[in-house]
Amino acid sequence: MPKFKRDFEMENEWGTHLTDREEARPLRTDIHASDLLGCLRQTVISREYSSQFDVMTLLRFSFGHAFEAALFKSVFTGESDGFVNPREALKHWDESAEDLEDWLEAAVERMNGGPTQELEVWKDGIVAHIDFGGDPFDFECKLTWVRPDDDVNAFLKKQWKWVEQIGTYAYMRDRLESRLAVMHVAPVPELRIYSLVWTPQELFDHWIRMMDRKQKVERHIQEGSLPGKTSQTKLCAGCSLKWICES
Ligand code: SF4
Question: 245 CA to middle of ligand 1, Å?
């Protein structure tokens, strides 16, 4: 049997790598849709100060992001998604250049109309990254510890932030319909997909509110002032800029 022991040194090294990477992240200058859906005070502070996260939180984020992206790509797009697998491509390259060309052409054809992961869209100076942009609708994907609820309205009312986010994307894409794919992790993994349909007036009103928030953020940035603290105090619990907000 080998001798076992925990390698604390390496654990620390990996943790430091995460915090260093976070600290080196450039400050955000664009206005992202998500900047307008939470605490505007946080959005304004984040233009000047970096977020401070502990290793545990960064590990949780890394896990969530990596798992969400990989999981939904595999569940959602399957094999016929047209994503180019470099190993596959190399195999075809070994055969011949023509073979590779044929294979790539077929892959691109499968991709047409298929979903694009992390689709970037811009409208009126706001940028958004949609989990999967596709036709006839886009998909927003969420991984959650919240348990599924058969009462769809009650469930989505509690997740109003997701609904606002998806509504923002729908307006930016000039659409009235979207899909929300939710992977409930507990008690056992379960996938539920919700259809969200708005009226044009609902989305327009929502966009006007987004524009108001954007103008408020821009005004504060210009004046070097801060908006008041959010009334949604639960956002403060995990706020990475609390140290500035309260100082
Ligand atoms: S601590 Fe709360 S009020 Fe302050 S920036 Fe963070 S979320 Fe906003």
Answer: 6
CATH number for position 222: 3.90.320.10
Q: Nearest 5°: phi and psi at 170?
A: -60, -45
Query: Would you give the distance in Å from CA 236 to the centre of its chain?
Result: 20
What is the band of 78 on the pLDDT scale with cuts at 50, 70, 90? very low
With the most atoms of ligand 1 within 8 angstroms of its CB, the residue from 36, 40, 49, 229 to mutate is 229
| Assigned domain for 231 exists | yes
How many domains does the chain fold into?
A: 1
Residue-level pLDDT at 186: 82
Domain carrying residue 134: 28-77+115-245
pLDDT in tens, 18-54: 999 888 888 888 999 999 999 999 999 999 988 888 8
82 domain-assigned? no
- Among protein residues, the one with the nearest Cα to ligand 1's atom 5 is 42
Indicate the pTM of the whole model. Answer: 0.80
Residues 6+ apart with CB under 8 A from 193: 179, 180, 181, 182
